[in-house]
Amino acid sequence: MENTFHEKVIAVQTELKAPKNQFNSFGKYKYRSLEDILESVKPLLSKHGLSLTITDEIKETATGHLYTEARAILHSPDGSVEAKAQAGIDPNKKGMDIAQSFGASSSYARKYCLNGLFLIDDTKDADATNTHDSNIKWLSEGTPEFTKAVSFIKKGGSIDKVKQKFSLSKAVENKLLNVKS
Fold it and tell me: Which of 75, 83, 68, 80 is nearest to 116 (CA)?
């Protein structure tokens, strides 16, 4: 007798081994990429008669921040299960053009979507512990930091100086650009 959908999902989750084969020389840590997970899971999906669909969509928060929402659906003729994950997009990320920023967000959201779907534990993963750029936070309207930034620009300060300290959404950047000095 063929396994139920639930039993197939449990089998894939149990059998999946997705080692951290990548190394970040800057942060000195090992990690697994989206491609590593997909390479490990594809043979198991075939073995258990399952298919996987992954999509993502760009969304915007009420405060103007962009993010990618990824959705992974595990299918079989007798059932399906899905998982979702989100990752922020920083269009002003240093060293990245806009396409790279969106692509990195998509890859990150898809990876964590699969982590949830296949029960891959990343608590010891570098993404859970790295502190790169952790001192740069988003500047949001209505905060004391935003008020200080407006005052700084009114006194002749540059938006580039603000960008060195904060990530800015397009909406916040436009408001700061329209401040009269």
Answer: 83
User: Sign (positive/negative) of CA torsion 155, 158, 159, 160?
Assistant: negative
User: Contact at 8 Å (CB) between 67 and 105?
Assistant: yes
159 touches 176 (CB < 8 A): yes
**Structural contact between residues 70 and 58, judged by C-beta atoms closer than 8 angstroms:** no
Q: For the residues of 49-112, what is the DSSP string, one character each? A: T-EEEEEEEEEE-TTS-EEEEEEEEEEETTEEEEEEEEEE--TT-TT--HHHHHHHHHHHHHHH
Confidence of residue 11 (pLDDT cuts 50, 70, 90): very high
- Return d(Cα 171, Cα 175) in angstroms, integer: 6
**What is the rounded distance in angstroms from the CA atom of residue 119 to the CA atom of residue 10?**
10
pTM of full prediction above 0.85 = no
Domains in the chain with CATH codes: 5-129 (3.30.390), 137-177 (no CATH)
Q: Give the mean pLDDT of 105-113.
A: 95
Phi, psi of 163 (to 5 degrees): -65, -25
